[in-house]
Inverse folding.
């Protein structure tokens, strides 16, 4: 039998503790919205300048609310996919300060697993 004689806590190096730069702020929403083709999606900009993107079959929705979604606290992006009779759908929200690159990655992942019938 061996006995662990390492000191309690954790060990690390100075290099591992260095500060990182993190993407902050909303960035450019066009990297999200440019992922959608006119052939498969409808885009509507309303009187508040909110952007609504729907799939032609109505099961996918993405809303961008630059000044926050009405009735929601700080919600800047809303992604929703409607389920079927057998499998529930889902929704994801991001606040107004979430970097567009993060939202774009989530949207790309959802689109990558979708397919036409």
């Amino acid at each position: 039998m061996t006995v662990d004689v390492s000191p309690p806590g954790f060990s690390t190096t100075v290099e591992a503790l260095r500060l990182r730069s993190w993407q902050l702020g909303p960035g450019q929403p066009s990297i999200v919205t440019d992922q959608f083709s006119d052939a498969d999606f409808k885009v509507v900009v309303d009187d508040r300048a909110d952007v609504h993107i729907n799939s032609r079959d109505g099961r996918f929705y993405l809303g961008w609310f630059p000044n926050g979604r009405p009735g929601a606290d700080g919600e800047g992006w809303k992604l929703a996919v409607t389920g079927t009779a057998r499998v529930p759908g889902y929704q994801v929200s991001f606040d107004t300060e979430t970097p567009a690159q993060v939202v774009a990655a989530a949207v790309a992942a959802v689109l990558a697993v979708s397919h036409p019938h």
In short: The chain has a mean pLDDT of 90. The chain has two helices and five strands. The longest helix spans residues 100-112. The CA atoms of residues 60 and 81 lie 5 Å apart.
